[in-house]
Amino acid sequence: MTTRIDLRGLLPQELEELAVRLGEAPYRGRQIFRWMHARRAKGIEVMSDLPRAFRERLALVAELPPVRVLNRLVAADGLTRKLLLGLGDGNSIECVLMIYKDGRRRNTACLSSQVGCAMGCSFCATGQGGLQRNLTASEIILQALALGAELAEGEGGNRISNIVFMGMGEPLNNYEAVMKGVRIFEDPSGWGISHRRITLSTCGIVPGIERLAREKPPLELAVSLHAVTNELRDKLMPINRRYPLEELIPACRRYAEITGRRVTFEYALIAGVNDRREDARGLSRLLRDMLAFVNIIPLNPVAGSGFKGVPPAAARAFVALLQEAGLEAAIRDSRGQDIAAACGQLRFASREVL
Ligand code: SAH
Ligand code: SF4
């Protein structure tokens, strides 16, 4: 059996080449791209401005895998929704939609980049299950499609405005597929999402950050820091043994200098572990004179981790300490704990009953 080409993960240029291989003009490739990513076509057969004979030829060699929602959970706020999606090989992944109705209205899709994760951070549920495999670019787009379809008319009907790679997996360990996804999201004839609204979060893969600095893909960079000493970071995040702070922080500085873009540092406050006054001082020392922003996240509970978050007042006090020291910092609004959809709570084998 021959496998058909998955059209959803192809860049415009690759679609043009495919069109030419099938005996058509290159612009047919662009048409297919628009059908899939701007008009959200569910199949080749509905691409009505392509000649019928071409559609038939295309369907013999290529396909658009269907979105398979295995489970849907809506948080008590009604605005945070988690989907469990089935993939072609029987694996499943979770992704989350966050609707913001007040202030800057936006619909944020929190996407996974891998089935599971190999990084084993001690506070993260995804890390507990290990890595199954990387996702393809098509499977990355598939999540945004499924989440967009959850939006009602009054919620911007299908319009995903922001993408964050903060679901399952380490995106810089799946660089090629994630960047393909980013380019498809950013393309004005595709999803048309501005680079300021696409954020990639990494646990600190230094060669990946260096590659981002060289290639400057259209995205914002967030780095999960969580500790200001190697001693503590080694314990929380095993990747620190490979890329310790004295390599990670200079790489982030270089990224900020080369790209002129600000780096966001994520810092999950864990009660009694990294929430002391001296941690705040250490943070401001580490990030001094850098184009940086600190996002404080009270840790979300993960069974078996033994860690606890901090109350909101403690998080506010920590942010105030950072601000006094001259850092830009804010608390990240954390959502979806009641449906295990908050940061660090996603799993590839959801235990919920389907
Ligand atoms: N693998 C990437 C992106 C996915 S995790 C990374 O680690 O950056 C998205 C964010 O959630 C990261 O900042 C991660 O450190 C954080 N996170 C993981 N577990 C968490 C938890 N239990 N509570 C709060 N944040 C958590
Ligand atoms: Fe992987 Fe990120 Fe979870 Fe660490 S926090 S285990 S890198 S998904």
**C-alpha-based Rg, rounded:** 21 Å
Q: Helical amount among residues, as a percent range? A: 25-40%
The main sheet comes to:
10 strands, mixed
Mean pLDDT: 94
Distance between the termini: 32 Å
Please report which band the strand proportion falls in: under 5%, 5-15%, 15-25%, 25-35%, 35-45% or over 45%.
15-25%
Overall SS class: alpha/beta
Order of helices and strands: EHHHEEEEEEHEHEHEHEHHHEHEHE
Main attributes?
single chain, 354 residues, alpha/beta, DNA polymerase, domain 1, TIM Barrel, 10-stranded mixed beta sheet, 12 helices, 14 strands, disordered C terminus, binds S-adenosyl-L-homocysteine, binds iron/sulfur cluster
Question: What is the strand and helix layout of this fold?
Answer:
Layout: E1 5-6, H1 12-21, H2 27-37, H3 52-61, E2 62-63, E3 69-74, E4 80-86, E5 92-100, E6 106-110, E7 114-116, H4 125-128, E8 131-134, H5 137-148, E9 162-165, H6 175-186, E10 198-202, H7 206-215, E11 220-224, H8 230-236, H9 239-242, H10 245-259, E12 263-269, H11 277-286, E13 292-298, H12 312-324, E14 329-331
Parallel strand pairs: 1-2, 6-9, 9-10, 10-11, 11-12, 12-13, 13-14
Antiparallel strand pairs: 3-4, 4-5, 5-6, 7-8
Helix pairs in contact: 1-2, 5-6, 7-10, 11-12
The structure holds S-adenosyl-L-homocysteine and iron/sulfur cluster (SF4).
